[in-house]
Amino acid sequence: MAHIRLRCVECGASHRADVRALYCNTCKLPLEVEYTGVGALSRSGLGGLWRLGAPAPVHSPSHVVSMGEGMTAVALLERSGLLLGLASLFGKLEFQSPTGSFKDRGTTVLMSALKEAGVDEIVEDSSGNAGASIAAYAARAGITAHIFAPASAPAPKVQQLRVYGAHVHLIEGSREAATQAAKAFVEQRGLVYASHNLSPFFLEGTKTFAYELVDQFPEGLPDHVVLPVGNGSLLIGAWIGFRELQASGRVKRLPKLHAVQAEVVQPIAAAYMGRPWRPQAGARTAAGGIAVAQPPRLRQALRAVRETGGACVAASEEAILRWQRLLAREEGVYAEPTSAAAFAGLELLARQGVIGARDVVLVPVTGMGLKDMAPAE
In the chain, is it the N or the C terminus that has fewer CB atoms within a 10 Å radius of its CB? Predict the structure, then answer.
């Protein structure tokens, strides 16, 4: 990894590039990739998001682990826009990714870096989509994967983990309990913790979301991008990508990035609004993909929102499930509740006047509804 190093997101301390490195030695906060030389995803005719020309932490095309991820469609959501009083609402159909969620963006880069480093066994914790993505790409790379997930994770997501051949560890209790169990397993076995929440290499894949939007909106980027946020890997990745594009002169302005959480689990929204929040025992949200009570990149997520002029809101359970049904019945888009949460948040932002009627708005539909089905009416 001669053309990169790792840098602390808070104090800026520099660290040697290493797929095992997850925290700053000085302040114990997460790291990000810093490029010290030329590196690009567009190498040797590779397809999908690898052709976009974004800087990448992988040296050799032979180490790339890919299934043609990225390049997901953008669809005009005219009826939903009318319901919200918006003239231009678009959905980016991230569920078209190989494993059915946007997580494949981060996984292809993370898994390629792991393969290049010679890693043959990894540990990950996930409520579903990230674990499925890691399990699939690990199978493709010939890497043994241990996936820790809450015992309450949706059955279709757990089945997806198993069908890829991953060693599945279901943990009773909260989402954080699965994380702690995964970390303990890493320590016991001396394995690599391939955490999508912590690995800076994962963000180097999710940033390609921004690069694609430049191609898909040649007349100018949307005014607003509204995202469902748990740990914030898509939000932060998009922010990194847009900043790179701005620094290179490819874009002049950044879209306002808005973060949506569920009312039941809203550490980032509460921090944004300057109010205390703590998880309530037994409280659950249908939007399990964003049910993260202690996001390690909380400060980075807040910076992404504030520095782009965005906002952060928390959506009710009723609104989340209502928008899942509306998207299916009005647009033919079957989104999982986590994805529908972004539209519930958009409704709040439009009602509050944060987003205007004539603004161009894009919402990533991050995951397929078949993976996390809400009760039908």
Answer: C
